[in-house]
UniProtKB/TrEMBL annotation:
Gene Ontology terms: biological process: mitochondrion organization
Name of this protein: Glutamine amidotransferase class 1 domain containing 3, like
PANTHER family according to UniProt: ES1 PROTEIN HOMOLOG, MITOCHONDRIAL (PTHR10224), ES1 PROTEIN, MITOCHONDRIAL (PTHR10224:SF15)
InterPro entries for the chain: Class_I_gatase-like (IPR029062)
Organism: Seriola lalandi dorsalis
GO cellular component, one term: mitochondrion
NCBIfam families referenced in this protein's UniProt entry, alphabetically: PRK11780.1
Lineage of the species this protein comes from: Eukaryota, Metazoa, Chordata, Craniata, Vertebrata
Source organism superkingdom: Eukaryota
Amino acid sequence: MLATRTLLSKQTLAVLSRQPACFVHHGDYGNWGNTNVAVVFSGCGWWDGTDVHEGVYTMYHLSRNGARFQMFSPNQQQMHVMDHMRKQPGSGENRNMMTESARFSHGQGMMQMQDLAKLDVNSFDAVIFPGGHGITKNLSSFVKDGKDCKLHNDVERVLKDFHRSRKPIGLASMAPMLACRVLPGIEVTMGYERDDNTRWGNWPHTTIVQAIKSMGARHNVREPYEAYVDEKNKVVSTPTFMWETEYHYHYIFDGIGNMVKHVMRMSTK
């Protein structure tokens, strides 16, 4: 009996030794390597593009759950460049969204940042938009026009194409606003509907919540680490950095993780 167990253990180790390291690290919903997800960026940095944490956490959780992904961004100038120390616009500096978003990329070929104009819904199983003020400044005119804003042409096209194709759409922090503007009647979460300040953090961006409700969307209150799933429309949203916190970044990490898991789950249906 002992000899048999030893032999089986050696055989198991031999099999595992021939597998890539990621073999024993994939998550719950990975159809390993067969799910292809487009991730759309709007620059680099919370105040004028895609939030760094939300972008990186998205890619981490996609990798953890066995997805392949490609990164996209509009090849156009962003609204302005913010000094992230002073939280003020810089003087006279112009930057390209795609060039700034490329700071997220690592590697060559398909892992480089791609022009959003080239995103074809037929090549992907799902799309995810991480959050950041680039949502309201670069991917839409929300910062100027509020609830009557217009979306970047390719952003609107991509959202409508994935929705029409019944493919899941993942949205973090401010990104649900984009879908609410062009997909009537969807259900999302952006966290709380009023700024309930606590010792752990606060909700300073609730005016956007009121705006999406006026667009005809249904809003559901959730914590920053939760995700809300609109099963009918295949839209998954999470509040993440709609909640402002100084220390509890693991809540943001978990919120992105829950969103990604539901996107992966629905992409296999």
